[in-house]
Amino acid sequence: MGDSADFGLEMKVRDYECDIQGIVNNGVYQNYLEHARHEYLSEIGIDFAEYAKNGINLVVVRAELDYKVPLQSGDTFSVSVKMVRESRVKFAFLQEIHRLSDGKLALQGKIIGTALNPRGRPEIPEQLNALLPAAG
Amino acid sequence: MGDSADFGLEMKVRDYECDIQGIVNNGVYQNYLEHARHEYLSEIGIDFAEYAKNGINLVVVRAELDYKVPLQSGDTFSVSVKMVRESRVKFAFLQEIHRLSDGKLALQGKIIGTALNPRGRPEIPEQLNALLPAAG
Amino acid sequence: MGDSADFGLEMKVRDYECDIQGIVNNGVYQNYLEHARHEYLSEIGIDFAEYAKNGINLVVVRAELDYKVPLQSGDTFSVSVKMVRESRVKFAFLQEIHRLSDGKLALQGKIIGTALNPRGRPEIPEQLNALLPAAG
Amino acid sequence: MGDSADFGLEMKVRDYECDIQGIVNNGVYQNYLEHARHEYLSEIGIDFAEYAKNGINLVVVRAELDYKVPLQSGDTFSVSVKMVRESRVKFAFLQEIHRLSDGKLALQGKIIGTALNPRGRPEIPEQLNALLPAAG
Question: A52: which chain B residues are within 8 Å (Cβ-Cβ)?
């Protein structure tokens, strides 16, 4: 992924995100990934909140997360995003989180999503579809 | 899973867990799953916080989450836990979240974990090991 | 407050709510208080999410929180709610959190709110107004 | 406060921090304030996590939060910190959150804290005490 990512964002661990073990709680990484995805989508002209207001809901259907090295208080890290087509009505985000101090991979994730139209049916909006390569 | 689960917990959606789309944010489900796992571990005599204090850290190494039906404000739901052996130094929790109003499956997850001993090496404590069937 | 509360809810600390210090993070108590308020409002027929959909937003304008005894992993606690009128367009919730093991007061809060009508102006809906004693 | 603040930090709303009403949930502001405080303390040489490991716990005893203008998806904002002495064993952080797009005050807070020594007694560490003006 790394070099070929479509987008990257630098963030810093906030202490309230750490748990009893003194490391970032495993649920928090999904927050990091989501924020990076939404920033990426915003950059390419897709506003998650605006879509929701118009009845088009971008939703996650599956998440695969591999935890490698735990982030801790004080750590800065990068979150990358690479968007690929998963099927006719599904797309996927390949994402990696790297600790900046030593470049180590902290987490690798694949987040598969779809878009629900105002009738609740899976349908990728044209604007998003145009950005995805044709299905294999 | 369902019938053969080792443990189940009933919970209710809290409004601050819902996002702009009016549904439970996808990162929150990991919180639900973790809470149910810790309650289950506590029931079988394993105290997550106590372990952490003693330098034994139960950590997640991989999470697979399939989102089926989104939970909403007001929904009550059950979270099930079934613990299985994944390998000599890994165990897995098969978990399901069902909406109570209609029994629909909201989320299905597999959370793979290990335990790190005080030297940071994977090693399942005897107490936990004894609860897992022998590796195939 | 205690005895004269309008509503009470029992909850249990979830481990992800605890921080590096091994205690519930101070921001989390507002989540506890909000959930108890919404459950109370729901009981008296006021659905926060439904109101929001109809353009009536119940909003917090001031929060005063006194932290007494920190809650920890494993603790169960009660959250009480007492609703009073603060002014013509403001109401307040007097709330207390007590640790169940010994009854100790963990937190005392006063949450002042108002309702914004669809034009964004403070206006308490009739349904809610009828439940509040007349101002001074 | 503004001009005379000791420290300032710029942040951006993350969509998972917004709730059903489409605005940042009121409990999240305490996260913003805490993160800015810890970054400030870190800058002046006080590491919250390190202190906790050494048995010195910086704790909040009271929070007063005035909500002015709600932050929304996409908003960037600044969080200021000004540290003052509250009493011999208490200090306070005067904090403001301003929306960057128009400079509007979104939230004003006063967070009163103390430090608990390893015996659990309030005692401000010398390092921190030296940074606070003498009590009036």
Answer: 20-21
**Percent of chain A's residues with pLDDT above 90:** 81
CB contact under 8 A, A28 and B28: no
Are residues D108 and D66 in contact, defined by beta-carbon separation less than 8 angstroms? Answer: yes
Concerning whether B19 is annotated as a catalytic residue, the answer is yes
User: What is the band of A1 on the pLDDT scale with cuts at 50, 70, 90?
Assistant: very low
* Sign of the four-CA dihedral D123, D126, D131, D135: positive
CB C68 within 8 A of CB C105: yes
Instruction: Return the partners of chain B (3 or more C-beta pairs < 8 Å).
Output: A, C, D
Using alpha carbons only, give the angle A28, D30, A60 rounded to the nearest 5 degrees: 30
Q: Which residues contact A121 (CB under 8 A, 6 or more apart)?
A: none
Cβ contact A27:C16 at 8 Å: yes
Q: Which residues of A are less than 8 Å from D47 in CB distance?
A: 73-74
Phi, psi of C135 (to 5 degrees): -65, 140
Cα D72 to Cα C91, D17, D69, D75, D106: the distances in Å are 24, 9, 10, 6, 11
3-state helix, strand, coil in chain A (%, to 5): 25, 40, 40
Mean of the pLDDT values across residues D96-121?
Answer: 96
Give D21 to chain C, closest Cα distance, Å: 6
d(CA C17, CA B66): 24
d(CA A41, CA A38): 5
Q: What is the pLDDT of residues A7-42, one digit of tens each?
A: 999 999 999 999 999 899 999 999 999 999 999 999
What is the value of pTM for the model shown? Answer: 0.95
Q: How far is B2 from chain A (nearest CA, A)?
A: 20
**pLDDT tens track for D41-85:** 999 999 988 898 899 999 999 999 999 999 999 999 999 999 999
Q: Hey, what long-range contacts does A88-95 have (CB within 8 A, 24 or more apart)?
A: A88/A135, A89/A114, A89/A115, A89/A122, A89/A123, A89/A124, A90/A61, A90/A114, A90/A122, A91/A124, A91/A128, A91/A132, A93/A33, A93/A37, A94/A1, A95/A1, A95/A33, A95/A36, A95/A37
pLDDT, tens only, C92-131: 999 999 999 999 999 999 999 999 999 989 999 998 999 8
Complex ipTM value? 0.93
Q: Which run of H or of E encompasses D126?
A: helix D126-129
Residues of C with a catalytic annotation lie at: 19
**CA-to-CA separations, C47 to A43, B24, C42, C60, C112, in angstroms, rounded:** 36, 17, 5, 16, 18
β-strands D7-12, D57-67 pairing: unpaired
